[in-house]
Design brief:
six-stranded antiparallel sheet, 14 strands
Length: about 200
């Protein structure tokens, strides 16, 4: 084989390799929409509750401002759902900035939803400007869980203003310790701890 034939064969191989590298469009799956839903404020947390099947899960919502629990909070709902295989806690934007919609349901065995009141973040350099920014963090699940014990599942908390940036942020651990000793918690000015008691 002469040099020109070898070069022609190599060029043909390179061209054939290039033909195999194409991008194809797929039909989007539900999971492809999750980042978009999260950006718009939709969050869902699913918990396997099959170990307590047949019992009841009483919803517990604790509200904190500057690290102190609010005893006169409107969050004592007295709601309990029959437990099946799965418990879902979810959050969705409401039609105004000062509330969010919270939902609590158990595997087609009942559901409850309500609005949680939010508090604005105030920029000390611009006190007239108020923003409502909240984020969620799941709690570390400590086993074993027992009947009558409060089991925190999700923290729903406000961003805070950081003068060093300057600006708002919500940075820290991806999972919250059940005793609220995680570093991030000390910075959150307003938050809800949402969980259950097994009955």
């Amino acid at each position: 084989m002469n040099k020109q034939t070898i070069i022609s064969l190599l060029l043909a191989l390179v061209a054939m390799t290039g033909w195999g590298q194409t991008i194809k469009m797929n039909d989007p799956s539900f999971s492809d929409y999750l980042p978009l839903l999260n950006i718009k404020g939709y969050k869902a947390y699913s918990f396997d509750t099959s170990a307590f099947k047949g019992k009841w899960a009483e919803l517990v919502v604790k509200e904190y401002v500057n690290g102190e629990i609010i005893t006169n909070s409107m969050s004592d709902y007295g709601i309990a759902l029959g437990i099946k295989d799965k418990l879902i806690m979810g959050f969705a934007p409401s039609d105004n900035d000062s509330t969010t919609i919270f939902s609590f349901h158990s595997s087609d065995n009942g559901a409850f939803s309500c609005q949680l009141p939010l508090k604005p973040i105030v920029d000390p350099n611009n006190p007239g400007k108020k923003e409502f920014q909240y984020e969620t963090r799941p709690f570390e699940i400590v086993e074993p869980s027992s009947v009558g014990q409060f089991i925190p599942l999700v923290l729903y908390g406000s961003w805070w203003y950081d003068v060093d940036i300057p600006g708002t942020r919500f940075c820290g651990e991806n999972f919250i310790k059940p005793d609220l000793s995680s570093d991030i918690v000390q910075f959150i000015p307003h938050y809800f701890v949402l969980g259950i008691k097994i009955k």
